[in-house]
Amino acid sequence: MTNNHKIYQPILWPYRLIGNFLLIGIIWLLTLGVITIRHNLIGQQVDSLLNGLYQQSVVWGWGLDDVTVEGRQKTSMESILAAINLHRGDNILKINLEEIQNKVKSLVWVKDAIVTRRYFPNVIHISIKERYVKSIWQYQNEFYPLDEDGEIIETEYVPQQNVLQIVGEGAPEHVTDLLNIIEDDNDIFSRLKAANFISKRRWDLIFDDIENGITVKMPEEDMDAAWKKLVKLDKTKGILKYKLTFIDLRLKNKIVVKVKDED
Description:
three-stranded mixed sheet; Ubiquitin-like (UB roll); eight-stranded mixed sheet; Rossmann fold; 36% helix
């Protein structure tokens, strides 16, 4: 008869977890002390001790394992890593999340960012919301992409056919107000190719074709009412289907149209 002996490995993770929580408590207590005595000799000694604990905590399993990012399309992973300058093995408890967040938000395509810590494995997770091109501003023979707030996106950009082109000095500051009025009616808005900001006061809207389309002259004031009038005329009379050069909506009580000259 033989005796069978089984070897059991001790369960170590509860002890590691308790030890890690004790370590975090010690680090936070020392951090609070550093805030009050940082500028004297004792503070310098505590800083030295705190740095030693940070270094030791990496050995005990608090080193950075990875950086994860969600929500990016135009922002490259390389540009994010270069901005935050984190490395595998950095102490995850020492990383300043607000500083990392500000660095990410400084990237050209990033509108907003949220940075969080995750444990087991130790990960810095970055969730970003990117800006998108709402329109293109043509000014002095240059093209500037504008985001949904009318802000210039400082990057090289190739104009796309399905992006509204705006023209005129001061146009970016007023394009959001224009879009808030006109973009709800998809049938007409989808035909809008360009918007020209005239004399820093009002808009000319160009439909179907930038060179040979119909120009709708919008008034300086009460633009919302003028747009609703255009929508109603198109739905009831099909006014944008006629071969017109322009439709003038600047007068409240009348509409002026001009028919294209044809051979």
